[in-house]
Amino acid sequence: MSDTTAIFNAIEQAQTIIIHRHQRPDPDALGSQFGLKLTLQHAFPDKRIFAVGTVPNDLGWLGQSDTVSDDQYTDALVITVDTANTERIDDDRFNQGRQLVKIDHHPNDDNYGDLSWVLPDASSTSELIVDFIDAHQDALSLTRDAALLFYAGIVGDTGRFLYPATSAHTFAVASELLATGIDAAEVGRHENELSRGLGRLMGDVLANIEIDKFGAAHYVISQAQLASLSLATSEVQPLVSTPGRLADVRAWLLFVENPDGSYRVHLRSKGPAINELAKAHHGGGHDLASGANAADQQEVDDMIASLSKLMQQWQQTH
Prior knowledge:
5-stranded parallel beta sheet; DHHA1 domain protein
């Protein structure tokens, strides 16, 4: 774990530490962020340690962010977790500190930060933070409260240990977290629960998603649809994996309309890599799980056509 030494030294030397993560956070973003905050507060009670960014209502059970003034960034160590590129960092003051550290498990296409620790093979950033704690256990320890957050992050990013990035090491880390006495069933209940509005939307996704003959699927969630169900754009994250439950869906695009008419695009796949498609549309991510953006309906249509072509080519070789 020598890669973590410089980061740990920077943490030791800093008096103020501000932790950021990506916009529209999921359980791994919040679990790694809030779990790291609790861990560092336990180890260094005299330091000022904050976590910033907007927390969606449905993930409030993981914690709440701090209010940080601009002047608190002076001489601060800023750490970003679970954020592949600077465009996605929640709160654009991330570059106002004295030093910037990146800890992430996505492909390192945007190699930002003065220090970075990026392992794309890890199941989640929460898994990485636990490894970081274990690598420096002479100073850091795993508390029960932090363990629950890290476990929630791992469960979220592995789809309850179903996705390919789940490894033997992932299960070893999960076992370490469970050994602290956390209630795994509580985490499962929280991550499995849906609001009535999300439940109705999930039903519509399953009933009306469009699937072509190659197994390429897409569904568009409009602002009007969100309004009718009293849902915010940030609340649809739990539905991203829903199309994959259909046996004839091999890869899919979930478009979520933003208030300005553009679209946030979630790309997922059971076979062909879709991250290059995401990169072509102002995004990126893992081979089988990526995010992108579409400016308008024309770009939506282009992405649908591109996914269908990609699936056709993949089927010809598999």
